Amino acid sequence: MSGQIDFAEINRAALAAFPAVLARILPGGKRVGAEILALNPRRADRHLGSFKINRYNGKWADFSTGDKGGDPISLVAYLAGVSQAEAARLLAHMLGLETRGPRRGSYWFCNRWRGRNFVSRYAREIGAVTSP
Questions:
Q1: Which one of 49, 72, 111, 115 has the fewest CB atoms closer than 10 angstroms to its CB?
Q2: What are the pLDDT digits (tens) for 73-129?
Q3: Residue 2 domain-assigned?
């Protein structure tokens, strides 16, 4: 997969490995039926329940804020505060799919996640951002 970003292929691959993807980007989530309940790292969330991700189709919502999305790429984009294209590149890299690679020099990820966030650490590991 080079050149254009194949969003559908990245979403398919992410859904095939979604439990592992969710464990990496939202550690501490709890499985309840078809959903994963997790703390939302974008806000001062202290209780499980309002931030839910369907582990089969990738739809997610934060019922406290009204934020929602329909696939793994939109979830990564929301959590990292980046564009859909940048989220797709990061997710593809995480899954071992070939892309043009992460954009170097762009500051993709917010550091407000107090070190527990995988996406931010992963971006530094692959050289997408530099540590402050």
A1: 115
A2: 999 999 988 999 999 988 988 888 865 544 443 333 333 333 334 454 554 454 444
A3: no
